[in-house]
């Protein structure tokens, strides 16, 4: 099956600072990939290029039209209701209905007519997920979507994203700092370093995965060591 996303020799520089350096990446349809890397390694830069928020430089060989992004902050328009936010820009006759259906899927049916300011952080992120899903993306780009949430909400969001992924099967590229989140959700975990993907770990455990699973803990420890966070392993 041909990949949904293919990148060969992708380079992105800001002035003299080369952030992505002849990067190679390929994602299969329906595959869930997590991208780790130290702060400043270029994860968000890569996501912005793939989202089309940045000039698309040479090297992006295949990029699906239907792609959607969820950022760390929900980016809802405060002057539109939650359902209007989800339906924003949708070019189909049943946009409002589709938005409500997507909101129901993320457990927000009852808040469809609410103003964004009345939502909790977790609810607002769910609305952002609904806004992405309603576009039926082939590729869903997630840029640290749970980083600003409290630990319990984050665990609930992991379960929700896992459920949505299994139900709709978009390919997902998740940028995260959270190694546990990466091994809980992804089929493949990549490390971005010096502008290139320098490491990948396949995670073959069946879904849905449990927090506290020993095999996942071992993978997490290995990835933390790769990232140079060895102390965290023994505590
Ligand atoms: N628009 C820009 N102009 C100049 N430099 C930029 C720009 N965007 C990013 N950079 C630089 O590119 C490098 C990578 O930034 P990026 O935000 O992609 O890293 P990151 O891995 O996502 O970091 P973090 O994990 O801290 O979010 C940084 O050195 C950053 O300062």
Automatic annotation (TrEMBL):
Q: Which Pfam families match?
A: ABC_tran
PROSITE patterns the record matches: ABC_TRANSPORTER_1, ABC_TRANSPORTER_2
What molecular functions are annotated in GO for this chain? ATP binding; ATP hydrolysis activity
Domain of life, per UniProt, equals: Bacteria
What are the UniProt keywords, alphabetically? ATP-binding, Cell membrane, Membrane, Nucleotide-binding, Translocase, Transport
In what residue span(s) does the ABC transporter domain sit?
5-219
For this chain, the family text in UniProt reads:
Belongs to the ABC transporter superfamily.
Listed name of the protein: ABC transporter ATP-binding protein
Q: Identify the species of origin.
A: Teichococcus wenyumeiae
């Amino acid at each position: 099956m041909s990949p949904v996303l293919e990148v060969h020799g992708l380079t992105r520089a800001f002035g003299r600072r080369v952030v992505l350096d002849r990067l190679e990446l390929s994602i299969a349809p329906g595959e869930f990939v997590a991208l780790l890397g130290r702060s400043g390694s270029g994860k968000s830069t890569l996501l912005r290029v793939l989202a089309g928020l940045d000039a698309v430089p040479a090297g992006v060989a295949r990029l699906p039209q239907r792609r959607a992004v969820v950022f760390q902050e929900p980016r809802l328009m405060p002057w539109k209701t939650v359902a209007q936010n989800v339906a924003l820009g949708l070019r189909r006759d049943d946009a409002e209905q589709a938005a409500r259906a997507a909101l129901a899927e993320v457990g927000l049916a009852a808040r469809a007519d609410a103003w964004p300011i009345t939502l909790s952080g977790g609810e607002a992120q769910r609305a952002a997920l609904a806004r992405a899903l309603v576009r039926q993306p082939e590729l869903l780009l997630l840029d640290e979507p749970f980083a600003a949430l409290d630990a319990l909400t984050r665990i609930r969001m992991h379960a929700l994203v896992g459920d949505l992924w299994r139900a709709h099967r978009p390919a997902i590229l998740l940028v995260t700092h959270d190694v546990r989140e990466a091994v809980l959700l992804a089929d493949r975990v990549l490390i971005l370093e010096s502008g290139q993907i320098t490491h990948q770990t396949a995670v073959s455990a069946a879904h849905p995965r449990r927090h506290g699973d020993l095999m996942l803990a071992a993978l997490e420890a290995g990835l933390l060591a790769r990232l140079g966070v060895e102390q965290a392993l023994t505590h």
